[in-house]
Every structure is written in C-alpha cells, then in structure tokens.
Amino acid sequence: MNDFVPSELLDEKTLPPYLSAIPNVAERLGGHSSGWRVREIGDGNVNYVFAVHGPAGRVCVKQAMPYVRVSGESWPLTPRRAYYEYRALVEHGRHVPARLPEVLHHDSRMNLLVTEHLSPHVVLREGLRHGNRYPHLADHLAQYLVGSLFHTSDLAHAAIDKRPLVALFSGNHEMTQIMEDMIFTEIYHEHGRNRWTSPQLDDTVARLRDDVDLKVAVARLKVRYLTCTEALLHGDLHTGSILVTEDDTRVFDQEFACYGPIGFDVGTLLAHLLIGYFAQDGPTVADPERTDRQTRLLQVVEDVWTGFARGWAAAWEQPRQGDAYPRVLFDDADVLAGERERHLAGIFTDSVGFCGAEIIRRIIGMAHVAELRAIESDDARARCEQRCLRLATHLLKHPHAHRTIRDLTDAARTARLTTS
Ligand code: SR1
Ligand code: MG
C-alpha cells in the first residue's frame, strides 16, 4: 500500500513509497521500494537532489522546496521553478534530446521532477578542474546551443507558436529576478550578499564600483536580459549544470529558463570555461600538466563558438518555419548570407558582454564557483581572481574590440600574463 502523504517535502524515507506509485519510475528501479537506496547528491546553491537506486536501475529526483538551499527558510523562493525546469526540458527536448536527461515524471502539485540518473557522468566543472579530456565536449555543447537556441528563436519557430511560450516562461520571474539582481545590480553597490577574497580584492572591488563606463555597460546588458525574448534560454548555463563522460554531454538544471538574449547562455558558458582556465593557476606547486590543461580549455572555448556559429549557419540555410527573414523577400542569397553573418556577429558581441558580467558576479557576488573556492591560499586565489576580473572588465567595456573567438581567447591569455 502507498502510505505517502502528499504536499510534504520528500526525503530519504518518504521518496521510495512516493516513487513506487509512478509505474514507469517503479519499473525502471525494479524490485520492491523497500529495497531502494536514496542518496542526496545536490551540490548547487538552490536545491536538494536525490539519486535513487533500485535493483534494475537508477533515477534522479529533484523536488523544489519553497526556499533556497544555501540560505534555508530565511530566503523564500518559488517552488514553481520545478515546473519551468520541466517545461524547458520538454521544449528543448523537441530539438536536442541527446544532450538532455530524459524526463520520467513531473508532479506539478509536488513541484517534483524525476529524470534518468546519468552514470558514470561527472559534473563538467569537476572533470575540467582535474584535467580530464572530453574529446566531444565542444561539439556536443555547440550542438546543444544550436538545438536549444536556434530552434526556439524566431528563425525556426513561428510567432503564433512562440509567443504563447514567451508568455508561459515569463511566469518564471522570481528566478529571473535573482539573475537581474545578482548579475547586473547588487555586486556594483554595497549589498549583504556580496563577498570576495578580502582584503586582497578590496581595492579592485572599490574601483569596479566607481567605474561609470563599466556600470553603463552592465546596465545595457541588463536591459537586453530584461527585454529581449530571442530564444528559450537555459538561463544558468555554467559548467556545474553539465554532466559528462568521455563520450557524452548532458545539460541539466533548467530552473532559470526564460526567453532571453541568446548571448546570455553562450556568454555564461564561455565565462565558466574561462574561469576554469584562470583557476588552473591556483595551486602553487609545480604542475607539468597545467599548461596543457589551460591550452585545452581555451581550445574548448574556441571550438564551442566555432561549432555554434557553423551549426547556426547550417540551420539558417535549412527550410525554416520561423517568421524571421522570410526567404520570399530575398532573391539574392548573398544578401541573406550577409544578414546571417551580421546576426551571428550580434550574438557574439552580446556573448562577450554577458561573459564578462558573469565572471565578475562569480567573484564578488554571492555565488562563487568551486574551482576558485578550492584554492586554499587567499593570495593565490586572489591572483587568479584578479586576472579573471581584468579580462571581464575589458570584455564588458570593449565588447566590439572582440570580433572573433580568437580575440576573446587572446584577451584571456593577455589577462593571465599581465601583472598590475
Ligand atoms: C540563490 S541562487 C544563486 C545562484 O546559484 C545559481 O547557480 C544561480 O546562478 C544563481 O544566481
Ligand atoms: Mg543551478
């Protein structure tokens, strides 16, 4: 008998009876629920996540609580985020299912999502930190970006179908508000959630806050994030939201999903790859592999963009259902190709800016990243962070100076070597 009481937050004890009433999940786990093992595996700021193991298989369960994990009940947060995560998986799943976890169950009353449990996958951030090689990573990420972004944009999606989705995802405003505040506003003034490596970065932070040009650049990006509904974004596409093996790449944790500027997802992803590049310099012991790892990381940055641009151009040339750039208006293929390139250049410029904004907020805001946190010495960490901030401010203030992805990786190389 299922004695599960609805509306409660599930835990190691109550999850098995709840799951046993969901036929496809129970079947995947196999055997009797009394034999299922439950383990909490979440490592993010927002949620608890459980892996459930049965004799036949495994599933992953995420139930959104009405608050933020790292802050507890003192920071209430809508549990409806689970619904938007589910809907984003469904919408992106129409276009790029191979790069997502399979959805097994969604319970909107319980704010709960069950997906396949990916194993032996590891979180990309950790894999990169340890220097693992992922030969298909850049291709897979480019495939994910094209699939999720091109195919939800007005190039591929008719307005009559897209507009209702824009309206639906605008309901995720409590989550987007977090990004609006954290990325574009609160780090540029005194705010209780901010923290940084102190006193090493104190002067740098003060300089950032006094930098009017920088704040104008960030304010313009915030307007893009607030007003542009180009495509359905993941909304928090960092290397902790990606699971990998040598042969596979899957993107998860779409709870910040919203319609927004394409460059927001692309730039966020590039930001975290670049933070990983700078963080490699953290350990002070000599490491003969370090240079190779850094070279590989910048190669991933370059290959992700190159693969994305190539995939975008290829998708643009296919028969499309979207209302943007109707072929009937363009007899001259060169004119349309020129527009395609102009469009991609605009996405790149946006990406450069959002990349800079994301790097800064991960160093002086609330949500820091594991590879920088793991650097034990405050001085060594601050050195890496200064280089990150040097690059990020340059990107924000001079986005148009970076016309190619090589310009971006060159700027990263320069920021790493420049001493100030
Ligand atoms: C309370 S949420 C803090 C941050 O963690 C998530 O990963 C998002 O990036 C968010 O900004
Ligand atoms: Mg997350």
Textual characterization of the structure:
The protein has 420 residues and is of the alpha+beta class. The chain has 15 helices and 12 strands. It has a 5-stranded antiparallel beta sheet with strand order 1-2-3-7-6, sandwiched between helices. Strand 10 and strand 11 form a beta hairpin. Helix 10 (262-279) packs antiparallel against helix 14. The structure holds 5-S-methyl-5-thio-alpha-D-ribofuranose (SR1) and magnesium ion. 5-S-methyl-5-thio-alpha-D-ribofuranose binds next to helix 7.
User: Which regions have little confidence, pLDDT < 50, spanning 5+ residues?
Assistant: 1-6
Order of strands in the sheet with most strands: 1-2-3-7-6
Number of strands: 12
Strand content: 5-15%
Bound ions, cofactors and other small molecules, one mention each: 5-S-methyl-5-thio-alpha-D-ribofuranose, magnesium ion
What global shape is seen?
globular
Radius of gyration: 22 Å
What is the ordering of alpha helices and beta strands?
Answer: HHEEEEEHEEEHHHHHHEEEEHHHHHH
Structural class: alpha+beta
Continuous helix count: 15
| Percentage of residues assigned to helices | 40-55%
Biggest pleated sheet: 5 strands, antiparallel
What's the multimeric state?
single chain
State the distance separating the first and last CA atoms: 68 Å
Average of the residue pLDDT scores: 95
